[in-house]
Amino acid sequence: MAENTIGFVGLGIMGLPMAKNIVDTGYDVVGHNRSQQPVDDLAEYGGRAAEDATDAAERSDVVITCLPDSAVVDSVVREGIMLGLSEGMTLIDMSTISPTVTEDLAADLAEMGVDMLDAPISGGEQGAIDGTLSIMVGGNEGVLEAHRDLFEVMGETVTHTGPSGAGQTTKACNQIVVAAQMVGVSEALVFAEKAGADLEAVVEAISGGAAGCWTLDNRAPSMIRGDFEPGFFAGYQYKDLRIATDAGEAYGAPMPQTELAHRDARGHRGPRRRGVTASPRARHRLPTW
């Protein structure tokens, strides 16, 4: 039985299965979410319900957040979680937010004697359910090692990427590459279809060469079938790419391709072929990665 009590704030599509995996390992988990149903689901599963973010922090040794964006993380941490933290505790933010917001929060928490790790994730809802996420961790490496067992409950690959903010920088790099793949594969499939080629054969042929990538292996087959079952909000991808382009501007790193993918994420439409068009609901979300 694990000794630490884990506060989990943000029980959404990713957060709830992650919290359940922590419960399965024997940790005591105290959860809070803006809407009540996920909290009730966690409590029914074996966790406990917190009244608010402050209560979750007060009743925990380690607090994990998995929230939508920079503004929400900053608000929830400063106006809620910080009020319940005490010296010697650790805050692990597994949201995808701005590296600069992370650095500011980490500095303020350090003044309280609280360690912070920024640990954004990749792997989608299924990865959260299976506990196979890729976790990119910024912050003190010793703090990561002290909590590695907890991270390994949630993720298959846990990588220390540098000081505070480095995890978020790494996640931005992940989204830059993934978005470019999505745009490229979509354009290639539309081109191949309009040229009259066999799409399955095209994908098989190019997957074995320099064009081979995760998107071709995991998303092209469903695109060809016209299966646009959603797994990731386009608004979240738009937000993630906005983080990347803003950081690129701040650091003087040009990102013309990412700017294009960012624009496309705003009004995403799946490739249209043989009468197979994304449903209105699917158009508002992107495939999971």
Architecture overview:
It is globular, with a radius of gyration of 20 Å. The strands form three sheets. The chain has a six-stranded parallel beta sheet, sandwiched between helices. Strands 7-8-9 form a three-stranded mixed beta sheet. With 289 residues, it is α/β, with parallel strands linked by helices. The protein has helices spanning 15-24, 36-45, 53-58, 70-84, 99-111, 124-130, 141-146, 148-154, 166-194, 199-207, 214-218, 220-225, 234-251, 256-266, and strands at 5-9, 28-32, 48-49, 62-65, 90-93, 115-118, 121-122, 133-138, 155-162, 232-233, 285-286. The chain has two domains: 5-163, Rossmann fold; 170-286, N-(1-d-carboxylethyl)-l-norvaline Dehydrogenase, domain 2 (Orthogonal Bundle). Helix 9 crosses helix 14 (256-266). It is 53% helix and 15% strand. It has 14 helices and eleven strands.
